[in-house]
Amino acid sequence: MKIQKFVIDKNSRESLPDQLVRILRQRIECGYYVPGKKIDSVRMIANAFGVSTVSVQTALRLLKDEGALESIPGSGLFVRKDFVEEKQTANIAFVFPEAMISPNCLSPEDWITNSEIHLGLLRGAEIYGARINFIYLDETMPERLLNQRLAQIRQNNAVLFVGGQLAKYRNMLAKEMFVFNILSEYDITPDDVIQISSDNRGAIATAVEYAVKSGCRSAGIVTYLDKRTPEHHALRTQAELFVKLCKEAGLKTPEKYDWKFDDQENIGSALKEKLEKDRPEFLLCNYSYLVSDLYEICKESHLKIGKDIKIMAKSPGLIFQGMIPSLTYLKPPAFETAVDIVNYACRLTRGTISVADLDLRKNKYQLITGKSTGEVQFEANK
Q: What is the architecture, at CATH level 2, of domain 200-331?
Protein backbone atom coordinates (compact mmCIF):
# COMPACT_ATOMS: atom_id res chain seq x y z
CA MET A 1 0.00 0.00 0.00
CA LYS A 2 1.59 3.26 -1.12
CA ILE A 3 1.34 6.41 0.95
CA GLN A 4 -0.27 9.09 -1.20
CA LYS A 5 -0.74 12.77 -0.47
CA PHE A 6 -4.19 13.94 0.65
CA VAL A 7 -4.69 15.62 -2.74
CA ILE A 8 -7.27 15.12 -5.49
CA ASP A 9 -5.94 14.98 -9.05
CA LYS A 10 -8.79 15.99 -11.34
CA ASN A 11 -6.70 15.07 -14.39
CA SER A 12 -6.17 11.49 -13.20
CA ARG A 13 -7.79 8.51 -14.90
CA GLU A 14 -8.84 7.37 -11.44
CA SER A 15 -12.38 8.55 -10.70
CA LEU A 16 -12.95 11.21 -8.06
CA PRO A 17 -14.92 8.84 -5.78
CA ASP A 18 -12.13 6.23 -6.00
CA GLN A 19 -9.51 8.85 -5.12
CA LEU A 20 -11.62 9.96 -2.17
CA VAL A 21 -12.01 6.35 -0.98
CA ARG A 22 -8.24 5.93 -1.00
CA ILE A 23 -7.64 9.22 0.81
CA LEU A 24 -10.35 8.74 3.44
CA ARG A 25 -9.19 5.18 4.09
CA GLN A 26 -5.68 6.51 4.62
CA ARG A 27 -7.05 9.06 7.07
CA ILE A 28 -8.55 6.19 9.04
CA GLU A 29 -5.33 4.17 8.96
CA CYS A 30 -3.12 7.03 10.14
CA GLY A 31 -5.44 8.00 12.98
CA TYR A 32 -6.89 11.21 11.53
CA TYR A 33 -10.31 9.58 11.87
CA VAL A 34 -10.48 7.60 15.11
CA PRO A 35 -12.37 4.29 15.44
CA GLY A 36 -15.80 4.85 17.00
CA LYS A 37 -15.66 8.59 16.29
CA LYS A 38 -17.61 10.65 13.78
CA ILE A 39 -15.94 11.68 10.53
CA ASP A 40 -16.29 15.06 8.78
CA SER A 41 -19.58 15.95 7.13
CA VAL A 42 -20.17 15.49 3.39
CA ARG A 43 -19.99 19.23 2.81
CA MET A 44 -16.76 19.61 4.83
CA ILE A 45 -15.07 16.86 2.82
CA ALA A 46 -16.34 18.31 -0.47
CA ASN A 47 -14.99 21.77 0.42
CA ALA A 48 -11.66 20.37 1.64
CA PHE A 49 -10.96 18.59 -1.64
CA GLY A 50 -12.80 20.85 -4.08
CA VAL A 51 -15.20 18.17 -5.33
CA SER A 52 -18.97 17.82 -5.51
CA THR A 53 -21.05 16.42 -2.67
CA VAL A 54 -22.19 13.71 -5.10
CA SER A 55 -18.60 12.44 -5.42
CA VAL A 56 -18.21 12.48 -1.63
CA GLN A 57 -21.48 10.60 -1.09
CA THR A 58 -20.42 7.95 -3.63
CA ALA A 59 -17.06 7.50 -1.86
CA LEU A 60 -18.69 7.23 1.56
CA ARG A 61 -21.12 4.63 0.28
CA LEU A 62 -18.20 2.56 -1.02
CA LEU A 63 -16.46 2.82 2.36
CA LYS A 64 -19.65 1.72 4.11
CA ASP A 65 -19.88 -1.26 1.74
CA GLU A 66 -16.35 -2.39 2.65
CA GLY A 67 -17.10 -2.06 6.36
CA ALA A 68 -14.94 0.96 7.14
CA LEU A 69 -17.83 3.24 8.10
CA GLU A 70 -21.20 2.84 9.72
CA SER A 71 -24.18 5.18 9.68
CA ILE A 72 -25.93 6.10 12.94
CA PRO A 73 -29.33 7.69 12.22
CA GLY A 74 -29.48 11.29 13.36
CA SER A 75 -25.77 11.38 14.21
CA GLY A 76 -23.79 10.84 11.00
CA LEU A 77 -21.05 8.51 9.79
CA PHE A 78 -18.60 6.87 12.18
CA VAL A 79 -15.46 4.76 11.76
CA ARG A 80 -16.31 1.15 12.69
CA LYS A 81 -14.47 0.07 15.81
CA ASP A 82 -13.84 -3.40 14.39
CA PHE A 83 -12.44 -2.07 11.09
CA VAL A 84 -9.19 -0.82 12.58
CA GLU A 85 -7.80 -1.21 16.08
CA GLU A 86 -6.86 1.76 18.17
CA LYS A 87 -3.30 2.56 17.17
CA GLN A 88 -0.50 3.51 19.46
CA THR A 89 0.67 7.10 19.57
CA ALA A 90 3.83 7.43 17.48
CA ASN A 91 6.73 9.05 19.33
CA ILE A 92 9.06 10.90 17.00
CA ALA A 93 12.38 12.39 18.12
CA PHE A 94 13.66 15.49 16.37
CA VAL A 95 17.41 15.47 17.03
CA PHE A 96 19.43 18.67 16.69
CA PRO A 97 23.02 19.67 17.55
CA GLU A 98 22.44 23.41 18.08
CA ALA A 99 22.70 24.35 21.77
CA MET A 100 21.39 27.88 21.23
CA ILE A 101 19.84 30.16 18.64
CA SER A 102 22.95 31.88 17.37
CA PRO A 103 24.55 32.70 13.98
CA ASN A 104 27.56 30.80 15.31
CA CYS A 105 25.47 27.61 15.11
CA LEU A 106 23.32 28.20 12.03
CA SER A 107 22.77 31.03 9.58
CA PRO A 108 19.55 33.07 9.98
CA GLU A 109 18.21 31.43 6.83
CA ASP A 110 18.77 27.95 8.25
CA TRP A 111 17.10 28.97 11.52
CA ILE A 112 14.06 30.02 9.49
CA THR A 113 14.03 26.67 7.70
CA ASN A 114 14.36 24.84 11.02
CA SER A 115 11.45 26.79 12.47
CA GLU A 116 9.33 25.78 9.47
CA ILE A 117 10.28 22.16 10.12
CA HIS A 118 9.35 22.53 13.82
CA LEU A 119 5.95 23.96 12.91
CA GLY A 120 5.39 21.23 10.34
CA LEU A 121 6.19 18.52 12.88
CA LEU A 122 3.78 20.00 15.41
CA ARG A 123 1.06 20.35 12.79
CA GLY A 124 1.65 16.77 11.64
CA ALA A 125 1.44 15.58 15.24
CA GLU A 126 -1.91 17.32 15.59
CA ILE A 127 -3.28 15.80 12.38
CA TYR A 128 -1.98 12.24 12.73
CA GLY A 129 -1.92 11.74 16.48
CA ALA A 130 1.83 11.74 17.22
CA ARG A 131 4.10 13.07 19.95
CA ILE A 132 7.19 15.09 18.98
CA ASN A 133 10.19 15.01 21.34
CA PHE A 134 12.92 17.58 20.71
CA ILE A 135 16.30 16.19 21.79
CA TYR A 136 19.61 18.06 21.81
CA LEU A 137 22.60 15.88 20.90
CA ASP A 138 26.18 17.03 20.48
CA GLU A 139 29.04 14.65 19.77
CA THR A 140 31.30 16.78 22.00
CA MET A 141 29.14 16.00 25.05
CA PRO A 142 30.67 14.01 27.90
CA GLU A 143 30.24 10.31 27.17
CA ARG A 144 27.81 9.73 30.02
CA LEU A 145 25.48 12.54 28.90
CA LEU A 146 25.79 11.45 25.28
CA ASN A 147 24.71 7.91 26.18
CA GLN A 148 21.76 9.29 28.17
CA ARG A 149 20.60 11.28 25.14
CA LEU A 150 20.95 8.28 22.86
CA ALA A 151 18.87 6.25 25.32
CA GLN A 152 16.18 8.94 25.21
CA ILE A 153 16.16 8.80 21.41
CA ARG A 154 15.80 5.02 21.44
CA GLN A 155 12.61 5.34 23.49
CA ASN A 156 10.93 6.80 20.38
CA ASN A 157 9.47 4.97 17.39
CA ALA A 158 11.20 7.15 14.82
CA VAL A 159 13.84 9.87 14.67
CA LEU A 160 14.43 12.82 12.35
CA PHE A 161 17.76 14.45 11.45
CA VAL A 162 18.23 17.51 9.25
CA GLY A 163 21.19 17.88 6.91
CA GLY A 164 24.42 15.95 7.22
CA GLN A 165 24.94 16.76 10.88
CA LEU A 166 25.37 13.92 13.37
CA ALA A 167 25.72 11.40 10.52
CA LYS A 168 27.59 8.95 12.76
CA TYR A 169 24.64 8.66 15.17
CA ARG A 170 22.09 8.79 12.37
CA ASN A 171 23.67 5.76 10.72
CA MET A 172 23.98 3.89 14.02
CA LEU A 173 20.34 4.48 15.00
CA ALA A 174 19.08 3.57 11.52
CA LYS A 175 20.03 -0.03 12.21
CA GLU A 176 17.69 -0.06 15.23
CA MET A 177 14.68 2.14 14.36
CA PHE A 178 13.01 4.27 11.67
CA VAL A 179 15.37 7.13 10.87
CA PHE A 180 14.41 10.02 8.57
CA ASN A 181 16.87 12.54 7.20
CA ILE A 182 15.91 15.77 5.43
CA LEU A 183 18.74 16.15 2.97
CA SER A 184 19.44 17.47 -0.51
CA GLU A 185 18.51 15.10 -3.32
CA TYR A 186 22.11 15.38 -4.51
CA ASP A 187 23.37 13.72 -1.32
CA ILE A 188 23.46 10.00 -0.67
CA THR A 189 22.64 8.25 2.61
CA PRO A 190 22.96 4.59 3.67
CA ASP A 191 20.08 2.33 2.64
CA ASP A 192 18.84 2.11 6.26
CA VAL A 193 18.17 5.87 6.34
CA ILE A 194 14.87 7.15 4.92
CA GLN A 195 16.07 10.16 2.94
CA ILE A 196 13.53 12.95 2.41
CA SER A 197 14.34 15.55 -0.23
CA SER A 198 12.61 18.52 -1.81
CA ASP A 199 12.43 18.96 -5.57
CA ASN A 200 15.61 21.00 -6.05
CA ARG A 201 15.89 20.04 -9.69
CA GLY A 202 12.33 21.20 -10.27
CA ALA A 203 13.12 24.51 -8.57
CA ILE A 204 16.09 25.11 -10.87
CA ALA A 205 13.95 24.23 -13.90
CA THR A 206 11.31 26.73 -12.72
CA ALA A 207 13.98 29.46 -12.44
CA VAL A 208 15.11 28.79 -16.02
CA GLU A 209 11.55 28.76 -17.32
CA TYR A 210 10.89 32.03 -15.51
CA ALA A 211 13.98 33.61 -17.09
CA VAL A 212 12.70 32.64 -20.54
CA LYS A 213 9.16 33.91 -19.86
CA SER A 214 10.56 37.22 -18.59
CA GLY A 215 12.05 37.85 -22.03
CA CYS A 216 15.69 37.51 -21.01
CA ARG A 217 18.23 36.38 -23.60
CA SER A 218 21.07 35.64 -21.19
CA ALA A 219 21.23 34.17 -17.71
CA GLY A 220 23.80 33.62 -15.00
CA ILE A 221 24.11 32.20 -11.51
CA VAL A 222 26.06 33.41 -8.49
CA THR A 223 27.30 31.04 -5.78
CA TYR A 224 29.48 31.36 -2.70
CA LEU A 225 31.68 28.32 -2.06
CA ASP A 226 34.35 28.59 0.59
CA LYS A 227 37.55 26.62 0.33
CA ARG A 228 36.12 23.85 2.54
CA THR A 229 33.12 23.19 0.28
CA PRO A 230 33.27 19.58 -1.03
CA GLU A 231 33.68 19.00 -4.75
CA HIS A 232 30.24 17.41 -5.04
CA HIS A 233 28.35 19.88 -2.85
CA ALA A 234 24.69 20.59 -3.68
CA LEU A 235 25.46 24.24 -4.56
CA ARG A 236 27.95 23.15 -7.21
CA THR A 237 25.52 20.62 -8.63
CA GLN A 238 22.72 23.19 -8.75
CA ALA A 239 24.93 25.69 -10.58
CA GLU A 240 25.90 23.07 -13.16
CA LEU A 241 22.27 22.08 -13.65
CA PHE A 242 21.17 25.71 -14.06
CA VAL A 243 23.77 26.34 -16.77
CA LYS A 244 22.82 23.12 -18.57
CA LEU A 245 19.07 23.88 -18.53
CA CYS A 246 19.65 27.48 -19.62
CA LYS A 247 21.57 26.35 -22.68
CA GLU A 248 18.86 23.82 -23.51
CA ALA A 249 16.28 26.62 -23.26
CA GLY A 250 18.22 28.80 -25.67
CA LEU A 251 19.55 31.27 -23.10
CA LYS A 252 23.08 32.55 -23.48
CA THR A 253 24.95 31.25 -20.46
CA PRO A 254 28.69 31.46 -21.10
CA GLU A 255 31.16 30.37 -18.47
CA LYS A 256 31.75 34.02 -17.56
CA TYR A 257 28.18 34.19 -16.19
CA ASP A 258 28.73 31.26 -13.80
CA TRP A 259 30.02 33.33 -10.90
CA LYS A 260 31.62 31.46 -8.01
CA PHE A 261 33.22 33.26 -5.08
CA ASP A 262 35.30 31.83 -2.24
CA ASP A 263 36.63 34.95 -0.50
CA GLN A 264 33.96 36.27 1.86
CA GLU A 265 35.90 39.40 2.80
CA ASN A 266 36.32 40.60 -0.79
CA ILE A 267 33.10 39.24 -2.26
CA GLY A 268 31.47 42.68 -2.45
CA SER A 269 34.16 44.26 -4.61
CA ALA A 270 34.45 41.17 -6.84
CA LEU A 271 30.68 41.07 -7.32
CA LYS A 272 30.58 44.78 -8.13
CA GLU A 273 33.29 44.38 -10.76
CA LYS A 274 31.36 41.64 -12.52
CA LEU A 275 28.03 43.49 -12.41
CA GLU A 276 29.55 46.67 -13.88
CA LYS A 277 31.76 44.93 -16.43
CA ASP A 278 29.58 42.29 -18.07
CA ARG A 279 26.38 40.96 -16.54
CA PRO A 280 23.59 38.63 -17.68
CA GLU A 281 20.02 39.91 -18.00
CA PHE A 282 18.80 37.33 -15.46
CA LEU A 283 20.72 36.27 -12.36
CA LEU A 284 19.85 33.40 -10.02
CA CYS A 285 21.29 33.77 -6.54
CA ASN A 286 22.36 30.25 -5.57
CA TYR A 287 23.53 31.47 -2.15
CA SER A 288 20.77 33.61 -0.76
CA TYR A 289 22.94 35.75 1.52
CA LEU A 290 24.41 37.36 -1.58
CA VAL A 291 21.03 38.92 -2.33
CA SER A 292 21.56 41.86 0.06
CA ASP A 293 25.03 42.41 -1.48
CA LEU A 294 23.51 42.40 -4.95
CA TYR A 295 20.87 44.94 -3.99
CA GLU A 296 23.43 47.24 -2.38
CA ILE A 297 25.84 47.05 -5.32
CA CYS A 298 23.07 47.64 -7.85
CA LYS A 299 22.04 50.75 -5.92
CA GLU A 300 25.63 52.04 -5.86
CA SER A 301 26.05 51.30 -9.56
CA HIS A 302 22.70 52.88 -10.51
CA LEU A 303 21.37 49.58 -11.87
CA LYS A 304 17.59 49.20 -11.68
CA ILE A 305 16.70 45.74 -10.39
CA GLY A 306 13.85 44.30 -12.42
CA LYS A 307 14.85 46.35 -15.48
CA ASP A 308 18.63 46.50 -15.94
CA ILE A 309 19.02 43.09 -14.31
CA LYS A 310 16.45 40.58 -13.06
CA ILE A 311 17.27 38.80 -9.80
CA MET A 312 15.81 35.61 -8.31
CA ALA A 313 16.89 33.49 -5.32
CA LYS A 314 16.28 30.11 -3.69
CA SER A 315 15.47 31.02 -0.12
CA PRO A 316 12.97 30.75 2.77
CA GLY A 317 12.48 34.44 1.99
CA LEU A 318 11.61 35.81 5.42
CA ILE A 319 14.98 37.53 5.82
CA PHE A 320 14.29 39.52 2.63
CA GLN A 321 10.92 40.94 3.66
CA GLY A 322 10.78 44.69 3.11
CA MET A 323 13.43 44.82 0.39
CA ILE A 324 12.78 47.25 -2.46
CA PRO A 325 12.04 46.07 -5.06
CA SER A 326 10.44 42.96 -3.56
CA LEU A 327 12.39 39.78 -4.27
CA THR A 328 11.21 36.93 -6.48
CA TYR A 329 12.26 33.69 -4.81
CA LEU A 330 11.70 29.95 -4.63
CA LYS A 331 10.65 28.96 -1.12
CA PRO A 332 11.63 25.45 0.08
CA PRO A 333 8.72 23.27 1.29
CA ALA A 334 10.11 22.67 4.78
CA PHE A 335 6.74 22.83 6.55
CA GLU A 336 5.02 20.46 4.10
CA THR A 337 7.93 18.02 4.21
CA ALA A 338 7.81 17.83 8.01
CA VAL A 339 4.06 17.15 7.97
CA ASP A 340 4.69 14.30 5.50
CA ILE A 341 7.39 12.82 7.72
CA VAL A 342 4.96 12.62 10.65
CA ASN A 343 2.47 10.88 8.35
CA TYR A 344 5.10 8.36 7.24
CA ALA A 345 6.36 7.75 10.78
CA CYS A 346 2.86 7.20 12.17
CA ARG A 347 1.95 4.65 9.55
CA LEU A 348 5.25 2.81 9.89
CA THR A 349 4.84 2.73 13.67
CA ARG A 350 1.28 1.46 13.42
CA GLY A 351 2.25 -1.24 10.95
CA THR A 352 -0.11 -0.21 8.13
CA ILE A 353 2.82 -0.03 5.68
CA SER A 354 6.47 -1.02 5.41
CA VAL A 355 9.45 1.15 4.47
CA ALA A 356 9.42 -0.45 1.02
CA ASP A 357 5.88 0.87 0.51
CA LEU A 358 6.76 4.51 1.15
CA ASP A 359 6.06 6.74 -1.83
CA LEU A 360 8.61 9.46 -1.11
CA ARG A 361 7.51 12.17 -3.48
CA LYS A 362 9.56 15.36 -3.51
CA ASN A 363 7.60 18.43 -2.45
CA LYS A 364 7.90 21.35 -4.84
CA TYR A 365 9.31 24.76 -4.06
CA GLN A 366 6.78 27.59 -3.97
CA LEU A 367 7.42 30.44 -6.39
CA ILE A 368 6.94 33.81 -4.66
CA THR A 369 6.89 36.55 -7.29
CA GLY A 370 8.19 40.01 -6.54
CA LYS A 371 9.33 42.97 -8.60
CA SER A 372 13.00 42.00 -8.76
CA THR A 373 12.27 40.13 -12.01
CA GLY A 374 9.97 42.73 -13.55
CA GLU A 375 6.38 42.14 -14.59
CA VAL A 376 6.00 38.54 -15.77
CA GLN A 377 2.90 36.48 -16.53
CA PHE A 378 4.02 33.07 -15.36
CA GLU A 379 2.57 29.73 -14.36
CA ALA A 380 5.08 27.00 -13.51
CA ASN A 381 4.85 23.74 -15.42
CA LYS A 382 3.34 20.97 -13.30
A: 3-Layer(aba) Sandwich (3.40)
